[in-house]
Amino acid sequence: MESKQVKADTPLLEFLMEHGQYSTRTRARTAIKTGAVTVDGEVLKIPSADLKAGQTVTWQSLAARKSIKDFDLAGSASDRAKASKAPYEVVYEDENILAYIKPAGMVFASPKPQVKTSFTAMKLWMTKARPKCECIQFVNRIEKESSGISIIAKNLVWRKHLQDQWQHFQRRMYVLVEGHLPADDVLFCFDQEEGKKKRTKHEFAYRTMRATPAHTLLKMEAGFEHVPLLMSGLRRQQCLLIGKGKEMPDPLGRSGLHLFGVDLVGPDGEVINVKSRVPQPFLNLMKGGKGPKAEPNWKRKQLEGVQRERSPRGKQKRHR
User: Fold this and answer.
1) Is 250 within 8 Å of 230 (Cβ atoms)?
2) Which of 74, 234, 298, 313 is deepest in the core (most CB within 10 A)?
């Protein structure tokens, strides 16, 4: 164990990042939430808690952390060695959930035991790496041709809560299209509900990350259930969603969809922000692309309106 006295008021997480030798903020936050950190001899599990000058913080030493993996839930040393590396990238884990990245081209889950899936691979790994975790349940599904954050619940309470509330959580996707949209704007989509004459209008805010002469990489607030709407909205803008459907362009051999962010809220109001990086195939395709310079549609229209008001013709109309 290591201890250090606080010299100036600072948040607990920042103190550990500076003095605790944790490689990432996620690891430091995990250590706090699992009770591995004490302040003046008492366990403190709130990363944002403010420390006062003169308090003493105690945490597990670096040497001890090297021999015990984060979230090591018992098991022999040989078991831990065999299960040291997850089959897919783990982007978040605590005592209730684990989030990993399902790669494109891999089936997420299947009722057929002979089908190799990402969930069965993760479950097999967790049974060895997390032997005390008796409940391993998936929360969300991701289609085979796409990639993104997949959540595994470690107890039934969290599984039921997350599945029931999934569509209410804010989710963000990288969307790769052939064609171009106005920079940093809103995509308007319409759907025709059965038995109704009027179409329902939906708005999806997006940010233009990069653009090449042929393709655009967007960051969009949407989930996979919105994909049919997005495809129709993109077509109206003469854009095509890459790799989604037989008639769509497919330069990557996969869809241009990646779920990179999910803002979860736990059963007791816990807020968990899970994020991942841009897939490397997306970056390879967008190599050399630049960020947007054009103004969004609403800004352009606003500017055009001001210019019309200031023009001589506009002044004559107002005079009349």
Assistant:
1) no
2) 234
